[in-house]
Amino acid sequence: FSMPFIFAVIIASIVAWPRTRLTTLAESKIPLWLGRHSYSIYMVHWLSFIATGTFARTALHSQQTNAGFVMNSAIGFSLLALTIALILAAASMTYRYIEEPGRQLGRRILSKSRL
Residue 8: what are its φ and ψ, rounded to 5°? Predict the structure, then answer.
């Protein structure tokens, strides 16, 4: 409920004070990479959750409840790190081999239609 208000305050502060630690942080490599790959991350994240969930059930024999999987905390954090790594690796590949070539194809088609 409060998220729109919080985002509005953040955006207003960035506009009011454009050279702060927040804007410098937002313009660093990791946030820019995440922003560039955000659609690919969105497209592959659910498949990555399914893959790691299947791994947890079959290979680790973890019991699944409504709240998640029952497992040791160290294994759970390791599985979380594996899931995040899988999401970022898959998003990087889909960005490079699907999203960007598709964008370039769209630009070529649009440039030919404007002639």
Answer: -65, -40
The amino acid at residue 37 is H
pLDDT tens digits, one per residue of 10-27: 888 888 888 888 788 888
Q: Per residue in 68-102, pLDDT tens? A: 888 889 999 999 999 999 999 999 999 999 999 99
Contact criterion met (CB below 8 Å) for 99 and 40:
yes
What is the SS3 assignment for 22?
helix
**Could you tell me which of 44, 23, 29 has the C-alpha nearest to residue 97?**
44
C-alpha to C-alpha distance for 12 and 6, rounded to whole angstroms: 10
Q: What angle do CA 69, 73, 79 make, to 5 degrees?
A: 65
Provide φ and ψ at 15, rounded to 5°. Answer: -70, -40
The pTM of this model reads 0.75
Residue 66 is classified by DSSP as: T
